[in-house]
User: What shape does this take?
Amino acid sequence: MANKQTYWKGEEELLRTKDFLASQKNEFNEALPLDEVLSENNLGLSANRRDFLKFFGFSIAAVSLAACNKTPIRNVVPYLVKPEEITPGVANYYNSTCGACSAACGVTVKTREGRPIKVDGNSNSPVSGGGLCSTGQASILSLYDTERLAGPQKIKDKTASDVEWSAIDGDITKQLETINAAGGRIAIISGTIHSPSTLGVIADFSAKYTNTKHITYDTVGYGGILSANLTSFGKQVIPSYNFDKANVVVSFGADFLGTWISPVEYTKAWASRRKVDGLNKESKILKTIQFESNLSLTGSNADYRFPMKSSMEAIYVTSLYNAIAQKAGVAQLPMVKSGELAGGAIKQSAEALWNEKGNSLVVSGSNDARIQSIVNGINLLLNNYGTTIDLDNHSNQYKGVDADFAQFATDLNNGAYKAVIFYNTNPVYNSPMSEMISAGIKKASLSVSFASTADETAIECQYIAPDSHYLESWDDAEPKAGVYQLTQPTISPVFKTRQAQESLMTWAGLAAKPLVDPFANKTILSQKAEASVYYLYIKTKWALMGINTDAAFNKALHDGVHQMPAKAATVPAFAANLSAIVTDLDKMKVDTNAIDLVLYQNVAIKDGSLSNNPWLQETPDPISKVTWDNYVSLPKALAEKSGIANGDLVNVIAGSKKISGLPVFIQPGQSNMTVGLALGYGRKGKIGEKGEFEAIGKNAFPFVTYNGSNFNYVTNGVKIEKAEGKYELAQTQTHFSIEGRDLVRETTFGEIKENPKAGNDKNAPHLYTLWETKDYKKEGAPNHHWAMSIDLNSCTGCSACVVSCNIENNVPVVGRAEVRRRREMHWLRIDRYFSFSNVNKINYEADLFLKKDYEGNKITKEKGLEAIDAIEKKKADKANYDHWENVQVVHQPMMCQHCGQAPCETVCPVLATTHSTEGLNQMTYNRCIGTKYCANNCPYKVRRFNWFRYNDNDQFDFHFNNDLGKMVINPDVTVRTRGVMEKCSMCVQSIQATKTKAKRERRKINDGEIKTACQRACPAGAIVFGDVNDENSEIHKLFKNERSYRVLEELNTQTAVKYLVKVRDTEKETKA
Amino acid sequence: MVRNRNNYNMQVRTIVVAFLLFLNLNLFAQAPGKPLSADAAKGESLFKLNCTSCHAMDAKLVGPALQGVHTRRSEEWLLKWIKNNEKLRASGDKDAIAVYNENGKAAMNVFENLSDDQIKTIITYFKEWTAPVKVKTTEPSGGTDAGFFSSNTLYILIFLIVVLVLVLYILRRTKKQLQSTISEMEGSNAEDHEHKELSEGQKKLAEFKKKSNPTIVKLLVGTVIALCLAVYGYNFGATEIAVQQGYAPEQPIKFSHKIHAGDYKIDCKYCHTTVEKSKQASVPSVNTCMNCHKGVQARDKYDGQISPEILKIYAAMDYDPEKPSGQQFGANPKPIKWIRVHNLPDHAYFNHSMHVKGVGLTCQTCHGPVQTMPVVQQFATLQMGWCINCHRERNIDVENNPYYEKLHEKIKADKNNKNSNYSKYYTKDGKINVTAAQNGALECSKCHY
Assistant: This one.
C-alpha cells in the first residue's frame, strides 16, 4: 500500500488524552441529567416505590388527558385575486444577484407562495457559475430577521423611535438644502458599489447637492492591490484572475478558495483544473503552492503549504522575484535581507513558476501596496498578464481606497463634513478609525444611515432610513467589466423599508416618475402605478447601454445576466520603480523573534456584517471546526513554551491595543511565532445565548492598523499573556473518533498517471452477508438506484453544502451550549483530517496513535490509561515542533451513506428506518420512538437526535421560534419534533417531486434533473447525484471510476455514496 | 362518536335540504311568465353559456342590461356587434363607439364562433324574454319541521327515555323489596322452602361457588372485562381518535357543491385549478367566484334581492354590485376564512397532481359524491390504512406511461420465464398487472419526509 498516512481529527485524538479516551467510551458527551430533572419534581433516582407509582400514574393520566385534545379547526384562506404566476404548492424561481457581499454572485431565488425560501447559484453568471458560498446561502434568513427595523427611525441619545417616511424625508431634504446652500460638505460613505444605476443615482444626487463626495470603504478591502495597480499600470482596479488558465499558482496568504475577493468564482475555476479523470501522461493539473501563517482553506487544499511568518512576507516575495529574475536574466532587486524557507521553498516555487511561464500565477493576500507591486513585477516577469491575469476585463468587486477613507475619517472628526450618509457600511464597528468616526458623526449637523438594523454606526446617527433587503429590491450590478446582472424583488417589502436609491432620489427631488417609457416605442402607463421609481431609473440606464426594448430587458432579467463581449486581454506597460519600493520595504523593522498577529476572515462569518445569522454562526470553521466564537489560534510550539493549553483564556496586546479574555485554540498548521484571530465577531445580536443581546466572540477590528497608505492586517510584536479562567469552545471536530480506520484515501498526481487505481488499490475485503441482495441492485434492474459520488479531489471544505442542506431540510440551529454537548443537528458535516506532511518523521505521537507505547508494546484497553501516563512523562523530551506546522488536510463531506445493508435498519425496534426499493435509507419520523439504537449502530455517525422542539422553544431563539423566521421553512419537508431521530434523506422531497413530474408528463427522468441541496451549492462541482441503474448517467460512470471507493467497505454496508480518491500534485516519492 | 352524530346530522340535513329544494324547485317552476319557443330556448342556452358572465337581462353588470335591446337596435346592427364588436368599432360606427364609451371602455369579447343563426336565436330569446314573476316566498313550513329533527331535540328525547327507564327500574326494585319484606314477615321457614325449590342447575352453581377460590374468580372476571375494554379501547383508538370521517363544518359561506358541481355540472377543475399541477387542489381564489357571480345573483330566490351568501363574496372583494366597474375591486377586501375539511398531518405528504393527472383518479374516488353534498364533508377516513389499501389494489400504467418503459421491457422479455422476478407481474390470463404496491408505493418515503 502506497499510502502510509496517519490521519487524525484533532490534537486530542492524536495524543489520545485521558479526557478524550474517557469521552469516547460513552454514548453521550455527558451523563443525562436524569437526577436533576427528577429532583425538580421532588423525586430522585433513589425514590421509593410509592413515589415511583405516583409519578407513573400521574404521567399516564396526564398523557391520556393531553391526548383528549380536540382536533383544532384549521382555516384555508385563498387569494382574493390570485396572481397569475403563482400556483399554490409549486415553487417559482427568479434569477437575481446576491447582496451578501460585493462579489455579487448571480443567484436563483426559489419562492413558494410569494416568499423566498432558498437561494442558489445561477449558472448563467460568470461570477457564481452555479455555486454559492455559505454566506450567500444564509443571507436569506436576514430577510426574516426580527431585529430588522420596521420603518424609518429618528434617534435621540442612542434611542430610536419610529417616525413616518414623509417626516424624515421633509427634515432631511430641508437640512441638505440648507447645508448645500451654505457651502457645507456632504459625504456619502458606502461599501463598494458597482451597480451602474446606483452610481447614477449618486451622481444625480451630487449634481443636485454640489458639495457631495462619495467615499468607498470596504470592511476588509483590497486597497493594496488597487494602489499597486495604479502605480504599476495606471489602472486602479483589481484584475480578473483566471485560475482556470494557470498550471501553477503561488499564493502568499491569499485565501482565494475561502474569502479572497471572489471565492466562489475562483473555487469554480480552481476545481475545474483539478480534475484528473481522462488526463494523459503529459497533462497538468493546477499545482497549488501556499505560503501562509494561519492554516487557511486554500492552505488546506494546497499541494505544498509552507508556513511563513506574515510580517516577513516582503522578504520572501522579493526573494522570489530575485530568483525568477535570475532565471529571466534581468536585474535583481537590491535587497539587504534575503530569505528562504525550510526545504528551499522559494527556490522550488521559482522553479515551478518558471517552468510554467505564461501559465502561472502569483497572488498575495497582503494589503501592502509595495508587496503587491513586487507581485505585479513577478507576474510580469512570468508573462502572466494577458493570460492568467486580465486587467482589461477587470473586476469591480472591491473599489475602496484606504487612504480616501482615512482622509474622510480625519475630515469628519475635524468637522469638515456638515452632512454624512452611511450606506451599506458600518465603520464604527469595523474600522480602525472607529473612535474618530464616532466622534465625527456628532460634529456633523446631519447624519443618516441606511442600515436595516440599528447597528453600531446607525445608532450614532440622527436618522435611520432602513434600506430594503436585496431580495425585496430592484438593482443592477457590474461585478466584472462587461458583466451586467440584475437584482429583482422576490417578495414585497416585509417591513416599511425603502431602497436606499429611492431615498437618495427622494431627497434630491428626483423621485417623480418619468412620463415616457425609457424603452423605444412602448409606453409603460399600466406599470407605472406599481413600479418603483428606481425600477424605471434602472430601465433608463439600461436603455443607454443598448438594452432598450422590453424583450431584451426581460431576457436579461430572465437570465439574470447580460454580458458584453469580452475585450482582448493585453500586456500592460509597467511603470513602478521596484528598486525604490524594495529600499523602502527594507526599512521596515521586523523582529523575527516576536509574535505576529495575523487577522483573517472566517469562511462563514466573513466581515461580520451577517454575524446575527445563526446558520453562519453554527457553521463550523472548515479548519478548526469551532462554532459560535472567534479564538486565538496558537501554534503548538508557542503553546507548549508559554504553558498555554486548549481552552485557556489569554490577553492579546498589540501596541496600545489590548483584548482580554480570548479563548485559545491550538491549531495544527499554525506557523511558529504567529497567532491568528478572526475578524467579524464581537457584535451584539439577539442570537447570543438565551436571547440576550450578548456579543458573540470578541471584536478584533481594533487590531487593524493604518500605515499611512493602507490598512494592515498583520502586526509584528504582539504579546500573549495567560489570563484567569477557562472557556470551552463549541467544537464539532472530535465528537466522534475515527479509531484509526481507513476513511480517507489519497494519492499523488504522479502516481495516478502511472496507475489509475493508485491510492485505491487496497485488496477488496472479503465480504460476508446474511441478507439477500436487494432487487434494485441486481444487474439491469428497472428501478432507480439513487446514489451520490463525492470527489475528495474537488472538495475544498468550504461548507457551502452544509448551509444549503440546513436551509433545504429545515435543520434546526441548536446554539453554542448544545454544540458543546455534541448535539449539533447538521445532516451533512465536513470531516477534516490532519496528517503530518512528512511520514518519514513519524514521531511518538503517531506511534501512540498506532496504539504502541514507547516500549513498542500494544496499548490494550485496560492498560491504555497507564501507558498514556508514561508517555506524558516522556513528552518533556521532545524539542522540535516543526511537524506541527506542516500538516496536510483532507476534507471529507459525510452524511447518511444510504447503506444497501444498513446497520441502523436492523436494530430499530419499531421499523422507523427502512429501506426503499430505490436504495434510499428512509427515516420515518412519525414512527420513531427515539430509542437511538440506530445512531449507536451507525458506523458513520450521521444520525442526529432531536433533544428539544427547537422550532417552538424560546430557549433556542434562532429565528425558528418566531412567525417571521418560520417563513423560511421549506414547506415540503417535515419540521421534526422532539424525541425523534433524523438524518440526510438525499433530498427525497426533490426526488419525489421530480418523479411525480415525470410520471405526470409521461416521460423518463433525465440525468441531472434531480439535484440535491448540497450538489446545487457546491462551487467546485464535487458532488454528483443520480440514478446508478441508468447506464448513461454521470453517476453510473463515476461509480465505475478507478478512484471511487466506499468508506468502511469492509463492513459490507454497500453504501450508495462513494468517494473519489484525493490527488495531490506533489512529487511521487514524498509519499513513499 | 363524532362520526355517528355527524352522519346522522348529515342524513337529517340532506333530507331537509332535499325537501327545501323540492319546494324551491316548485316555486321556480312557476316563476317565468310564458313558455319560450324552441328558437328562444336555444337562444337562452347560448345566452347562459356565453353572455351571463357580463350581462343580465334586467340589471347592468359589466355590460348593460339587455332587456328590450331588440327595440333599441336593429337586428342587423346587433348581429354585427355580437359577432365582432371590435370590427364594428373600428369601422367607425358611432353607436358602437358610444356603447363602448358608456360602459367604461370595457371591451366585449368577440364571438366569431357563433353563426348568424345562432345569434338570431339569442335575439329571439331577447324578444320573448319576460321578467320572472316575483313570488312571495314565505319561510317554507318545512323549516319548522326541520327543527323537530335537530340534534338537540334528539338528545332531550334520549335523555327522557333514559330517565323513564331508570324510574321503571327503581319502581320494580322497590316492588321486589317490598314483596320480600312481606314474605319475610309472613314466615321464617320461607328460606328452607326456597332451598328446596332450587333447580338442578342452581345447585351445581352453588356447589361450584363453594369449591372455587373467590380471588381467582375475581381475577378471571376482571381479566375478561379488562380484555373487552382493551379491545374496545384499541378499536376506538384506531378508528375514532383523530379520525374525522364525516366532518362537515359550517363554512363562512353556505357554498353548495350540490348546486355547483351537481345541478350545474361545473367541472371540479374549473374552480380547483391547480389540482393537475400542484400538490394542492387549492380553494379557488375569490376572483374565480366573481367570474360567474358578478352576474349570477340568485335574485329570483330572494325576492329580487341579491342572495345573502353571494353578498358575502362581494363583501370579501369589497365589490359594489350597484356600480359594476370592470375588473376593479374595492379597496378594503376581506379574505374569506374557509374551514379546512380534509386535514392531513404535517408529516404526511400528499400530491393531488400525481393522483389526478399522473394516475387519472376522479375526485370522487377519495372525496366521495361531492356533487351531491350541499355541505361538503370528509368522505374517507384519511387514515394510513385507507391510503395503503388503494396502493395495494390499484395498478400502475406500465404499458402506456413511458416512465415505466424499462420495467415494461423487462416484464415483456421475461414473459415465459417462470423463474424470473418479473413473471409475477402476469395474471393467469397473461395480462400485465403491476400494482402500485409492487412498484414501491408502500414505502415510507413515498409520503413521509
Summary: The CA atoms of residues 146 and 178 of chain B lie 47 Å apart. Confidence is low (pLDDT under 50) at residues 1-33, 134-149 of chain B.
